[in-house]
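Reopening: structure tokens for the iron/sulfur cluster complex, inputs below.
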Amino acid sequence: MPLDQLGRPLTDLRISVTDRCSFRCVYCMPREIYDDHEYLARGEILHYGEMTLVARAAASLGVTKVRLTGGEPLLRKELHYLVAQLKEVDGISEIAMTTNAQLLAAQAVELAEAGLDRVTVSLDGLDDEVVRRVIDTDVPVSVVLDAIDIAEAAGLGPIKINAVIRRGWNEDQVIPLVEHFRGTGHTVRFIEFMDVGTTNSWNRAEVVPTAELVETISARWPLEVPKRSHASEVAETYAFADGAGSVGFISSVTAPFCGDCSRLRLSAEGQLFTCLFATEGTDVKAMIRDGATSDDVAEVISRVWTNRDDQYSQLRGAVPLDMPRVEMSYIGG
Ligand code: SAM
Ligand code: SF4
Ligand code: SF4
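Re-run output (same inputs, fresh job):
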């Protein structure tokens, strides 16, 4: 099993199944840029069979977990066919998906039946007006909350709820989100606003540090000392002292976790990336379309992984902010 230059194994594969999205979250796909953006054409995007071949190659090198993401994964037609194919890959023990949940209610049952194990749902608040401003799309919060219930009933729970908190936009949603999901078995995870890509006008003053959120939440509901359940788990999880579950924090800016980062990303276009902040990827689509087998692709992955030395978040500050970077909706969040 390959180790990278910093001794990190490869255990997780994130597949961006599309670069398109129905939302225009201001921190990810700002409308003024993405309404006119040139998206990948259908022929440029990997088919499900091609994605499965890469997953098989990755599994032969130690990958056990696959996450479907994007863009919005549920915009891909019949995504459950991909899930069913991935389920057949030896070595993959968990298939998860991150979604904005707009289309989840209609697809939850067939995804669960195909073998999807878990979903993470992105939701940045409970107040319709606040959320509408953040996602810049007219989708009521109730659509997402209903989808969470339906996904749970379909067996896709317990669900993680990802909330990006950005100063001046939605810090007032922290307490309502915690209050709503405490005691439900689902876990809210607060994500620091990240400087991913170059189009989201990131600025450090808008990052709400985890320490501040921990203080706010624990003043209302005391929290216990955090545990990280798994080395490759990016969130620090604090249990509520009263036993009503837990709350997570993903502190990519104030407490980077590159040392444990064991993820490889596959873009919808068939490029492998070894870091969310990568400037370039390694194409595998051309070789697959030329008849390469999963063993051939495994050789490429192994080489890419062995050469990997990424630790962008750890070095943040030493790297100029205007360096070229791939957008999150392309590379897969
Ligand atoms: N469309 C799906 C969704 O929103 O769940 C999947 C893709 S999205 C890129 C994956 C995750 O990245 C979401 O939870 C989103 O909130 C997060 N994200 C996007 N841009 C971000 C940023 N600038 N900082 C922190 N998290 C971000
Ligand atoms: Fe779409 Fe997800 Fe990005 Fe929002 S965070 S614009 S839902 S890809
Ligand atoms: Fe992994 Fe790159 Fe994020 Fe560090 S910055 S945790 S190496 S994806």
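DSSP finds twelve helices and eleven strands in the chain. The pocket of iron/sulfur cluster (ligand 3) is lined by residues 256-258, 261, 275-277, 310-313 (CB under 6 Å). Marking as resolved unless the reporter disagrees.
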